[in-house]
Each structure stands twice: as C-alpha cells, then as structure tokens.
Amino acid sequence: MIDPLVDIKENDIFELSPELLNTLLKDHTLSTDKCQVNIFWATDNYADRGKGYQYGDQITIEAITGSNGNVIVPRAIKSREQQQQRSREMAEVFTPSWICNKQNNLVDNAWFGREGVFNIEVDNHGSHSWVVNTKPVVFPEGKTWRDYINENRLEITCGEAPYLVSRYDTVTGEPIPVERRIGLLDRKLRIVGENTSTSTEWLKAAQAAYMSIYGYEWQGDNLVLAREALLYTFIDYYYAKFGKDPVLKSLQHIADIISWNLWQMDGLKGVIPNSCVKLPKLKNEPSSLFSLEDLGEQEELTLFDCPGCKNKDIHSHTGKYALIKDWKENKVLTFVSLLKQK
Predict the structure, then answer these.
(1) What's the mean pLDDT when you consider all of the chain?
(2) Which of 92, 213, 230, 284 is 20 to 30 A distant from 125 in Cα terms?
(3) Which of 334, 338, 330 is closest to 322 using CA atoms?
(4) Are residues 167 and 299 in the same domain?
(5) Does residue 257 belong to any structural domain of this protein?
(6) Is 243 inside a domain boundary?
C-alpha cells in the first residue's frame, strides 16, 4: 500500500506521477489553457530559503521535491515557534478532531433527523473521544445513500481540512484509523463502501462524493497539505475496500476534482489573496476606467482604492475573483456568485 504516514511526502507523489503532483499545485482561477499557474505561498514562513519561496512566489514542484522534499509539513510537526508565529500573523489555530467530530455530528443529526448515526461522543473526565457505530447506516424515509454523498459541504478557511478528512489529529499529529475517521468526506466514503460492491461502482460513487466537498484557504502550504490529505484519503478508503491501491488514472481524476474544489482565496473578499489593486481614473472624468497597461499612456491620473475593500462589499472588489466548478451543471463560476447581493 502507498505510504499512509501523517506527513505525506511530495517526493512520493512525484515518484508516483509528476503530473499528479502538478495537478495538486494548480490554481484554476489564474490558469489558462496555454499556461498553468500554481497556488502561491501567501506566507513569509519560507522566505529565508530564497528565490522561489517568497510570499508571492508560486509553489513549484522543484521547490518541494528532491532535496527540498521535506519543506511542507503538517502543523503538528512544525516547531512550536512556527506554530505561534502563524497563530499571531494569520490567526491559525487548528481544531482537535473530537471537536470536528462534535460539530460534524450536528450537521448529520439535522440531515438524518436522529443522533448517533456514525458515532457516539464520549467525555471521560475531560478526555474526549468517540465510539464508532459499526452498524450499516440506515437512511430516513425519503432519503437515500446517494442523496447523502451528493449533499454539498464546505469547510471555510480549511487549513489542512480537518473537518473534511481526518487521517490524523491536526493538533496532536496522531494518525486515525480509517474505521474511526470523522470528516465530512470520510463519512461519505464510508457510505460509499457500505453501498457498493465492485470497483467500478465504488469509483463512480466516490467521485460524486469528492465533487460535493469544498474548502478554501489563504496560505498555500496549508492548501497543499489539504489537497494531499484528500488524495491519500481516497487511496486509504479504496485500499480498505479492495485490498489494493487504485490505478493512476483514477488518482489523476480525483486530483483534478480536488484541485478545483479546494482553492486559494481570501474568504472575506472572495478573491485571490492580495489581488485587489487601485483603480486609475482621469481627473474630471471619474467614470473613466483604464486597464493597468494603459497607466503609462494617460496624463493627470489619480488612483482610487478598491471599492470593495473601501466599502467592505464582497461583490465590488478589483481583485481576481476565485473560480470554482459546479460539477452537476458542468460549469465554472465565481464563488461570490453563490452569495446573494444586498
């Protein structure tokens, strides 16, 4: 079986398939048919490494493989100093798995109309855990297992995505066996396993489950970790069901879904982080707008702050609005188009 350790090695993914790792680094908002743009670091934690590791640099395969293959590691493995620095600068605080489980249970309690569907929470004198309900999940009248796996779920500011997948506790770093996992996607894949028999059936249903799971994150290294965790979760559950690893073609398809559904974004603005720019206008003609390329040709210009930033209006930013994919409708749209305008 592919190495299931908590700290997924980029070198291992690259050895399996450079194309696979390339897909996990892709930013679909900024990429075009002719040119791939990767997610960027969006953190100064790696700046002392030099060129290619600065805040605005794209995360390249070269920067995280080979002798640099241990650059990106989960928060639990980072030094205490790095953890504290990221908490101060980006308010990065990860949630223990037992709390993720508790909150995910609330979502499922509402959907199923009953408690204890997947597990029972346990509080043993302040030591929190859960007992897995091992019986096959029974669905309420009027709902099917396919309805459950197709239900959209979003983890905001997802970090390493502990609410979606729980290969390990993001606070302690302790690995969690497949049968005890509590993420929103973990639950969907458990349902897939209970209701399919063949590899073809499983793959089709698992792909649908992945298409219904979304998350966004500011910092590029966290996003890489989240995407990797979702990819290896796919491997974990397939192996648990069939006793072998999925073929590369299946991994590539899942990686493409993951790279669309977990994306880099400033959650308060709906744009690529730090992409808002000032708008140029001609004096005495405040309604005339020009592209940034025209600035050098215009005379008597004044610059105006991004109206979205100024007025705190998520629909009026000058930045690059993040794109996501609606798999059911097979169309690409901006994330903010899903939010109602006042």
Answers:
(1) 89
(2) 92
(3) 334
(4) no
(5) yes
(6) yes
Q: How many CB atoms lie within 10 A of CB 312?
A: 10
Residues 161 and 256 occupy one common structural domain: yes
Domain that holds residue 308: 279-338
1 domain-assigned: no
142 and 242 fall within a common domain = yes
Provide the pairing of β-strand 279-282 with 301-304.
Answer: antiparallel
pTM of the model: 0.89
| Residue 274 within any structural domain of the chain | no
What letter would DSSP give residue 314? T
Residues 120 and 140 in one domain: yes
**Is the confidence at residue 6, as pLDDT, over 90?**
no
Q: Are 55 and 201 contained in the same domain? A: no
pLDDT at residue 126, as a whole number:
80
- Which amino acid is residue 156, in one-letter code? I
Beta strands in the chain (DSSP E): 119-124, 127-132, 153-155, 213-217, 262-264, 279-282, 285-289, 301-304, 323-326, 331-334
Q: Over the stretch 115-155, which tens digit does the pLDDT of each residue have?
A: 999 999 999 878 899 999 999 999 999 999 999 999 999 99
DSSP 248-300: HHHHHHHHHHHHHHEEE-BTTTTBSTT---PEEEETTEEEEE--GGGGGG-SS
Are 208 and 228 within one domain?
A: yes
Q: Which residue's entry shows tokens 């390339």? A: 22
Q: How far is CA 55 from CA 48, 86, 184, 187, in A?
A: 11, 14, 31, 36
Contacts for 307-310: CB closer than 8 Å, 24+ residues apart: 307/279, 308/269, 308/276, 309/269, 309/276
Average pLDDT over residues 73-99: 72
Question: Residue for token digits 């791939």?
Answer: 36
